[in-house]
TrEMBL record:
It comes from Salisediminibacterium beveridgei. This is succinate dehydrogenase. One of its GO terms (biological process) is tricarboxylic acid cycle. It comes from the Bacteria. Residues 145-173 form the 4Fe-4S ferredoxin-type domain.
Amino acid sequence: MSENTISMIITRQKDQESAPYEERFEIPYRTNMNVISALMEIRRNPENAQGEDTTAVAWDASCLEEVCGACSMVINGKPRQSCTALIDQLEQPIRLEPMNTFPVVRDLTVDRSRMFDSLKRVKAWVPIDGTHDLGSGPRMPEAKREWAYELSKCMTCGVCLQACPNVNSKSEFIGPAALSQVRLFNAHPTGEMHKAERLQTLMDGEGGLASCGNSQNCVEACPKEIPLTTSIAALNRETTLQSFKNFFGTDHTA
């Protein structure tokens, strides 16, 4: 390998039933390359480091601007976005692996349905009935809007779930992304109508708030620097209050 060559070791997998294996690639270096552009170079010329013809590596990507969250993968042992992972800032050989928290579809492509199902479970949206013009929506106080905006930056990339030791095949934990979205939509003047229902979901059954081990890996890994542990702490307080409301029968918002 020369200074004009990029060395990459990629964990590959043909399909969900196949065993993973590693394949090494050496590609020409260009200035300002990111991991995605390196993968595109392999796609243009699918040949491994031994000079053998191989298949192009499968991966997900869309915006290439760290907005969509689709290009998440493990790069040199750290889950992150491959569009903002610059080759010049990575130690070689660069190791690319799929996020093993999720089922592997092929190579670096994973099925993130677990995360999206968790968002459905906690009703992470603002429900609005009807198709007619409802006029101006309710206004939020500026102080609340500022921290709610930080939570709204979540791009459902799945990096926080990959970093969390409590999210695995043996756990039903919904993960920090969905928890933070509960706090976000409970803060919305309209979304607050379903606050009690969302909190009850976190309190009932497996995989709720009690499954969080407070490792704080999620907030360290989040590419958008979302205060996930702050949201989890706030939800711990809110679920405690909700349990008192349930006990005394004082909650009439659900």
